[in-house]
Design goal:
46 residues, mainly alpha, 3 helices, transmembrane helix
């Protein structure tokens, strides 16, 4: 675990790619499981 943390401290691009992929997966899961009528901010933009 210490080796993994040291690699993450060295490679900032790896941390950014992991975090962005987690955020994208969470956004896809929210879009799949929430009906669009319950997401008001999409309709407020148009």
């Amino acid at each position: 675990m210490k080796n993994f943390m040291s690699i993450l401290k060295i490679n900032k691009f790896l941390v950014f790619s992991i975090m962005s992929s987690i955020i994208i997966i969470l956004a896809i899961l929210i879009a799949v499981f929430e009906p669009f009528s319950e997401i008001p901010f999409i309709y407020n933009q148009f």
